[in-house]
Amino acid sequence: MQTYRKNRVEIVIEQALVPSLTELLDAQEGVRGFTVVPVHAGSGAHGVWSRDGQISDADGMYVVMCIIDIQFKDAVLDAVFPFVERRSGFITISEVDVVRPDRF
After folding, report:
1. Residue 65's domain spans which residues?
2. Residue pLDDT, tens place only, 28-51
3. How many domains is the chain partitioned into structurally?
4. How many beta carbons lie within 10 A of that of residue 67, not counting itself?
């Protein structure tokens, strides 16, 4: 089966920032969509945390991910980095192969 090389961008960010981040992604050239997934628990620079016992999602973390053409990577990173620069969260970029390139 034919596959096509793309970049997957994953941004782990506080729930309160998800609407602003997804609005920004919508405006970026080369971003044709995104997926938002809640994170149940984690550990990092700010210590161990978990959603267990939380009454709402207000303090939770989410992963916002998108798959883009490699040529748009730098522009997308320049746009989204300010969202995590001074907050909890991080950005990862990985190379992925997709089978339906027209979707990304």
Report:
1. 4-99
2. 999 999 999 999 877 666 677 666
3. 1
4. 19
Report the run of H or E that residue 65 belongs to, with start and end: strand 61-68
Query: What's 48's domain CATH number?
Result: 3.30.70.120
Q: 104 in a domain, yes or no?
A: no
Q: How many residues does the chain have?
A: 104
Whole-structure pTM value:
0.85
Helix residue ranges, H only, 1-104: 18-27, 73-84
